[in-house]
Amino acid sequence: MARISILGGGSWGIALAVLLHKNGHEICVWSALESEIEMLKENHEHKMLPDVILPEDTVFTTDDREAVEGKDLLVMAVASSFTRVTAKRIGSLVTPGQKILNVAKGIEEHTVMTLSEIIEQEIPQADVAVMSGPSHAEEVGRGIPTTIVVGAKTRATAEYIQNLFMNEVFRVYISPDVLGMELGGSLKNVVALAAGIADGLGYGDNTKAALITRGITEIARLGTAMGGKFETFCGLTGIGDLIVTCASMHSRNRRAGILIGQGKSCEEAMNEVKMVVEGVYSAKAAMELAKKYDVQLPIIEQVNAVLFEGKSADQAVKDLMLRDKKIEVPAFPWPEE
Fold this sequence. Notes:
There is one protein chain. The protein has 337 residues and is an alpha/beta fold. It is globular, with a radius of gyration of 20 Å. 51% of the residues lie in helices and 12% in strands. Helix 8 runs antiparallel to helix 9, helix 9 (205-226) packs antiparallel against helix 11 and helix 14 (278-293) crosses helix 15. Strands 3-2-1-4-5-6-7-8 form an eight-stranded mixed sheet, with helices on both faces.
């Protein structure tokens, strides 16, 4: 049995708390929001996960020290925009070598840092790992079979976390490519916004398939330029995560995109979804990285234009379709005539 704290009382953190408790671990759930902790104490379930019941012996707290001290693993499950402030808040309480598993997905807009890089900057003494893959909280909480990947700098840390989480409905692979995993998990949210916009415009399966296929091409193009491994983008944390996020109504990014495609502004869409839409925060960062690494990201560029420059969604699609003619795979040579 391990002593594990879930930092963040949102739906993903609660789904993982239920999973880990079923695996026999001692669970503490922390949130900076007093109202969230009171709701969890009273109902033992999250309003976004009806019928996913937290066991009676789950500890709920807003006390930083209670959440951090003596824990074998800290699961960082706050929204990406709160990763830095949460890491700053608990940093002085984390002991050398204490393990932190980040399960959120995103890139910090003003620094273009990944979330694990932020945690390592704020808590340099921690042993930081990441978890990513196609895994909606709504399904994990209900015990629907799911497969994900844990990434860490050492195999020992990856295997330790793998053993904590893995069971008959939650299969865990491990990988040393932390950067590739994080880029895949972050950038797929931006492409999912595009997929949702296409749905909101009334387009069909052909369009969705094109966005997924060309979207993973863009993600891999930038990711490999930054040092990620191509194979990672072909796996669960790349194409796998992209498929589920573009296709499912569980996806807040797709839902926000649908509303934008139907004519709502970015702000109106985010307010209606009532959850953090991570792709909006990662979209600008992706374009900054594209400039830095001199990489073309036409889909992500058009998403930025719709989100932040007032461009109409239908015009963005037309501009994508009418780009200069291309070869699909430039590396393939033509036979000599």
